Amino acid sequence: MENNLLVGLSRQMALQREMDVIANNIANVATAGYKADGNVFEQYIDPVARSDRFAAPDQHLSFVLDRASWHDMSPGPLQATGNPLDVAIDGNAFLAVQTPNGERYTRNGALQINAQGTLVTGEGYAVLGEGGPITFQQGDRDIVVNREGTITVREGNNIPEAQRGKLRLVSFAQPGQLRKDGSSLFAAPAGMAPQADTTASVVQGAIEKSNVSAVTQMTRMIEVTRSYTHVAGLLQQQSDLRRTAIERLADVPA
Amino acid sequence: MRALHTAATGMMAQELNVQVIANNMANMRTTGYKRQRAEFQDLLYQQMRRGGTQTSTQGNILPAGLELGAGVKTVGTPRIMSQGNLLPTEKDLDVAIRGEGFFRILLPDGRTAYTRDGSFEMDAQGRLTTAQGNVVQPGITFPQNAHDIQINVQGQVYATVGTETNPTLLGQIELSMFVNKAGLQAIGDNLYLETPASGPPQNGTPNTDGYGDLQQGNLEQANVEPVKEISDLIAAQRAYEMNSKVISACNEMLSATANLTR
User: Fold this and answer.
1) What's the pLDDT at A62?
2) pTM of the entire structure?
3) Same-domain check for residues A200 and A86
4) Which residues constitute the domain of residue A132?
């Protein structure tokens, strides 16, 4: 059995997966509200290729298995934009968003207003307030979002402020288990209910940038490339060894 | 190798980002220009192992799934419709809007366009037009011998005609407002068109209901902030470089694989 080839192959496949994850992180280095991913590897011990009968027993064979990927839920840096419809969340909460596939959650606070006056994400999904979607009226101006997420506007030339709703902030007991759904959205797996968040606060006129640390990703990338080349070298040596063995052993003496 | 294509989406996104920044910088001194911003979102994810699935009949579940993302996409380049600074010009046909509204302009093909650029002129027939010669709606015509043009904050246009001592009211400039100003379609020449995203225009007189008041002898400058654009440019360039490094790393890995078979 040429197990060493297969062990090397399992490592290379895991490294390719890790490279995929790093590439996705780096591609999203400028995506607002993006949370970095990481990979978890596991040693997988093959029980079949073992025998204790020899004087020197077989070693355990361990293959690499990429078991899971995880999300780094640490907050990203805040970039001040001065745009009244940009909100960042200071804390662990998410904004609730209504999509055709159900409720989703996001940290990307680059919000907009659509033709109906509803507050939406960049994709056009309605952002949920505590009483459903938040709708503005024609002529609303000077939009102010306070730290609790309450949205107030000035109607026309009137000085008194009118309230348009309150952003629904939710948090999860284990945010790491949220599933990424693309478009800066997270989906809650079955059995994970969002809880109303009271500790987080909203910062208006700022956007949470991606929390990808460029330096870390670059070093990981170099590490992956080097390990990959290294394993390829090992496989090469193994192949050479086998070739020499075949040549020598099968050599019929003249 | 998936990473190769993922990094390519990253490079494409940053290229578009630089393009948007370049356009903002080029229009730094354009009257009434509103800056754009490229917005990105992560692309779809492939679930290699779904989190929460059972790993044994004892009810053990996978705490975290294995998700591989496919890169980044540009979701839009919305305009930031904030108020620009007013620049005094002392020209009597320069009008700046301080507030939410847009001037209404009749295009030669009969369509109506909207603009924040109030650097108006008078054509040979005495009509109030834009610098391109398109007529401002509703039309205002100045008599041959009109002088000392006054436009007040409510948009009423007065001029003294001939030897009269009292100014005559010649017309009223109207403004239009949209629910979603950022959804207007820019067609160049500082003009915007109505779209389904912007919603229909609502017309009204300046200085009422939030339409904004008019400031004669002023022009609204672009709302581009050079410092912000430059720092965004640096970030975009570095992000582009990093993505290109991923591509060369993938290349190195692939060549290691290719060299296995000698």
Assistant:
1) 78
2) 0.83
3) yes
4) 78-208
